[in-house]
Design brief:
Structural class: alpha+beta
CATH class of the largest domain: Alpha Beta
Number of domains: 2
Shape: globular
Order of helices and strands: HEHEHEEEEEEEHEHEEEEHH
Number of helices: 7
Helix content: 25-40%
CATH architecture of the largest domain: 2-Layer Sandwich
Radius of gyration: 28 Å
Number of strands: 14
Largest sheet: 7 strands, mixed
Distance between the termini: 118 Å
Strand order of the largest sheet: 6-5-4-3-8-1-14
Strand content: 35-45%
Length: about 290
Amino acid sequence: MKTKKKKTAISQKAAPVLIAAMLLSLTACSGQETKKTETPEPVQERETVYQVALLQSLTQGYYDGIIPVSELKKHGDIGIGTFEGVNGEMIVLEGTVYQALGDGIVQVAADNETVPFSNVTFFDKDIAVDMSGIDNMSAFKSELDKAVNDNGKNMFYVVKVNGTFDKMLVRSELKQEKPYKSLDKALETDQREFTYENISGTVVGLYCPDYMSGLNAAGWHFHFISDDRTKGGHMLELSFKEAKAELDITPSFDMKLSDNADFQSMELAKNVDEAIKKVETDTKAD
């Protein structure tokens, strides 16, 4: 009987230790299981052109910002656009958003600056084209169109062209104040043009297929920034002896719209093709 009581005493002392060990084991297993079921970080979609609003809304005079620059950068590291009040031209290159102002100054855009219109994507080179003997914008577009026709005219293309340009004509515009005028009317008085010679830099461009004409401008749209990041704007004309073009073929499209009452009341099906052509190509230069 004494032996039996001794065994019982030992068992009672060991019980708390065993229970604690079991609880620790369960806690460890629980932690391991939680780790296994953690949701992975979403992979950023690199094959999408992300558009803020429409070129048609911008052309009709909707200049209010829809998203901040900080949000835009989550959707791409290359692209073009403008800022609230059309306060300068946007050039996005290597993840930095540049603002080419109407006075000719280029600055890095603040993260809280807002965006009424833009197109960005993440650049992955799919095609490289050596270009030479380009005398004007028409010849430049024709060379790029060959790459588009060879690879599929119904895709989106983003291009960057690095080189030294014999001539580079760019424009920007002065910031507009409410009540806003349509963009073509604003540019009649507030467009500012800058001509540069023998300037090294990068042309950033977007190609939209013909079926996008109701949401953007079909064809090519180019902006430029110098290598020293002090000069840039919407490109109107150029010439160069040699340059290398790199193109990213992009098969997807995503668009961000505004729920603002002024935006929602706009007649966005209205044909503004002539106004778009004017704001894209008109120059005051001789």
